[in-house]
Design goal:
By secondary structure, this protein is of the alpha+beta class. It has helices spanning 24-40, 45-51, 57-67, 84-97, 99-119, 122-133, 245-279, 291-320, 325-350, 361-371, 378-390; strands at 139-142, 158-162, 165-176, 183-190, 193-200, 206-207, 222-232, 281-282, 285-286. The longest helix is centred in the middle third of the chain and has 35 residues, at 245-279.
Amino acid sequence: MSTTAKLPPFDPRDPAGIADLLSTDEKDIAAAVRRMCQDRVDPFVAGWFEQGRIADIRGLAKELGSLGVLGMHLEGYGCAGLSATQYGLACLELEATDSGLRSLVSVQGSLAMFAIWRWGSEEQKQRWLPSMAAGEAIGCFGLTEPDIGSDPGSMRTRARRDGSDWVLDGRKMWITNGSVADVAVVWAQTEEGVRGFVVPTDTPGFSAPEIKHKLSLRASVTSELVLDGVRLPADAVLPEVTGLKGPLSCLNEARFGIVWGAMGAARSCLHAAMDYAGERTQFGKPIAGFQLTQQKLVDMSLEYTKGVLLALHLGRRKDAGTLRPEQVSLGKLNNVREALEICRTARTILGANGISLEYPVIRHMNNLESVLTYEGTVEMHTLVLGQAITGHAAFR
């Protein structure tokens, strides 16, 4: 069989033609987020990383709310109600700018807002979700503790009944948005099992000291949550869930965004390496003309392409209601691991310039060291998949 149809030109930045698999609406969402990042964040993010702070984070949150990306895959309550794939594409564009920016959006929408949207009362939803979707209120998610990471069932934070009230005591650690949050979703052990609580951060006994001296996710607010006799009314508890099902369902939402977001960091570094290799001259010609550099660029492009195809496939499954948690683990494990390798390889192409904040590579590389750990380590996702494949649990 032959055809006379003219082939489309080869796009070095989309070698497999993945853009052809996206709808017009999906392309429009990606383009809108990319424009906002280019205008509002890209000129400043290296400075924020160097300084260890985001300038005017509340103003930025409101701009993200106006764009519609906060809780964008949730229905009602001021949320955009867009598809999982559209949300994934937004995460890719956000993390192409910086993992800290995607973390702000992911924690807001997929952890704090999702917890209230999925497990909260109607009163809790009405009180918090519209203002969070608009970026007028910032949320955080308190699960990880100083000595409790991958084993949340061993958390030490406790909530006890005192009359009709709840009283919370404990510590949470490595909490994105904690120091700037207006509301915290905090998970605690109770006599009934693990329960979630919606905690206004101006409640007496609640504090959130910021964690300093980070060398990763510096353009992101990371905090400890301290709960010393935090007294809450009876209706502060999330009524629709008891047990680890609650927090784990939220983590699964966040992991899905990371599957996409990691590819954004990878794309940024890949494109930086492609541009640099075409401009940097050694031994009389651009280094893009040397075989070893070409091998690096081809390998990076190959892994990036496979990662985006995997993310898109999982997005389609999520939109169809057929995405399993094990498949999210597959995506998170592969895409973050490969994105980190792409960033490291890009650094070698840039040589000494690869460690300069004049280029995005070392910033993405450092950020991905955290992304590799949060929302499930390589080890935990490996064991999740190992159990799914073999039928044998190896966690203990």
